[in-house]
Structure prediction request, 149 residues.
Amino acid sequence: MDLKYMDIAYQEALKAFSNSEVPIGAVIVQNGKVIAKAYNKKEKHNCCISHAEILAIQKASLKLCNWRLENCDMYVTLEPCPMCASAIKQARIRNVYCGLANADSHNNMIIKEIFKQDAVNPSVNFVNNLYEDAVKKLLRDFFSIRRAK
Prediction:
């Protein structure tokens, strides 16, 4: 784990913030090299699956010409939702380093269950709350602005 990649994910989240998207950023790293980065684009794409994690997985898969992202790690500013966690596991990403846990503790239980090894896919190592203060402030600022409109 290297927090410089969390810095990059945070910079992606700032891009989302400046584009009036929920400020979440994701970075995929392989062998110490960033191979994909993305931020939420649900509003821009008018698509409920345009989450940072999904977009980063798509970019990484295209770059590697392979849907299997083995030996890859993801850095994401906010704990993934169940949809993104399932995509992460299906992509066979080995580690997920997360800036902030979701405020919904039930989400965390679901994510941990999804990331367990099953008969088809290996487990995903999951580390949470690595960038807690910065991400919490960014989300608070975003939703404060949104509520004021």
Remarks:
- The helical segments are 3-18, 42-45, 52-64, 82-90, 105-114, 132-148.
- The chain has a mean pLDDT of 95.
- The CA atoms of residues 42 and 49 lie 7 Å apart.
- The longest strand covers residues 33-39.
